[in-house]
Target: polypeptide N-acetylgalactosaminyltransferase
Amino acid sequence: MAACGRRTRPSCNDLKYDYRSLPTTSVVIAFYNEAWSTLLRTVHSVLETSPDILLKEVVLVDDYSDREHLKEPLERYISGLRKVRLIRTTKREGLVRARLLGASITTGDVLTFLDCHCECHEGWLEPLLHRIKEEPSAVVCPVIDVIEWNTLQYLGNAGEPQIGGFDWRLVFTWHVVPEYEQKRRHSPTDVIRSPTMAGGLFAVSKNYFHYLGTYDTGMEVWGGENLEFSFRIWQCGGSLEVHPCSHVGHIFPNKAPYSRNKALANSVRAAEVWMDEYKEIYYHRNPHARLEAFGDVSERRKLREKLGCKTFRWFLDNIYPEINIPSDRPGMFGMLKNRGKVNYCFDYNPGDEHIVVGKKIILYPCHGMGQNQFFEYSTDGEIRYSTREPGGCVVGDNISTYLTVQLCKKRNQPVPVDQKFVLREDGTLYHVASQKCVHALDKDKDSGSGAPSLQPCSDNLRQKWFFEEKA
Ligand code: UD2
Ligand code: MN
Model:
């Protein structure tokens, strides 16, 4: 009988740090037109929760804000605070170049970046610095707690920390920690490996940040830099981790105080440098991205070469094996168009965040913008809505006759019979479970522009379908 006694699992409160052996840090906070209270809440929370011996300075970078309170009043206020420095860009630089300007005047061993509307939680800093001391090529994120944007109440973070992923729109997504990663960790206080980071809150050794090529300075304003940096960290030999013992709150505002339309070009830069042939999966689902002017990335490609970084395939296989990799066979993806109801396409609106399953597929005028009109016919006979992660699969319901979307099967599992379709030579789309064909109906009770429905097979043109990539 196992008489090993009950060993208590260590908790974050049990961790003790020898401050003198930890590296020092500089906290860099770039801001653009931030409110006074949230900016100062960030600064004070850093000062109050960071052990004096570990914190070299807090560098505030004003990215050319025009609000009055961020000018002289801010200077006056912080002149009374120890360790806080303020520098200003001379034109709007965007968060990448603003952060780098801040980093350039720091004196600490480790750079810790924060957004300008955060609240650091007691004990947030030590685990980050300790991990970097232990593993200098680790880039470490705190758990991001939620601060309600309208009440500013600190809600914390219920349950297990989550890790970062992305979908094929190159949008950052949150995920539960996969089982293989739970197994790899020995203790609940061990870091959690994460394929990507949200972007705003992380610590990195200054030397390692420079070795890795800091940021892509061709990225403007907001967006894309987080995935670019995440891919680069993993592909070039580092690791990206969440420390479950470090917590920082962040206000996710309902609307940013600036336009975010540069995000597309930034994402394209990331795809062009890091994703190899997998950038096509992105472009198929976002045809406008292919047309976006993204500037010159030759320096970044040289950096990749110089560092001898691994392929995107390696990253997907080893770091993000949960992601579905669409096969996108020629002629088997894009808009799913009908021959009888001309210029009408399958359309699915899954809602804002994670894919909302169970909603109905409708027919809508074909727009050629990918996204909600992008479907893919898989080798297993599924019609996949694989723009989001985890992807959805079209399901036929014999009773209602309509098509909805459910989560697809996991890899290596058989396709549920109600998700199985045969796209036949003559263009008919045969639903195996109901033995019926997909027919383009006009108006129905949910959609003024019609919907596909399962009907007895016939040679009506309304039952002929074809994929088309471009409008
Ligand atoms: C998330 C990240 C953010 C960044 C972004 C992708 C978190 C909590 N936040 O969006 O840090 O990685 O995804 O790009 O992970 N700013 C400037 N100049 C600008 C625009 C923004 O200095 O032109 C500042 C801004 O004031 C803030 C920071 O950059 O301090 C990030 O911007 P955000 O808070 O609007 O982004 P967020 O949190 O929605
Ligand atoms: Mn933010």
User: Anything to note?
Assistant: The chain has twelve helices and 24 strands.
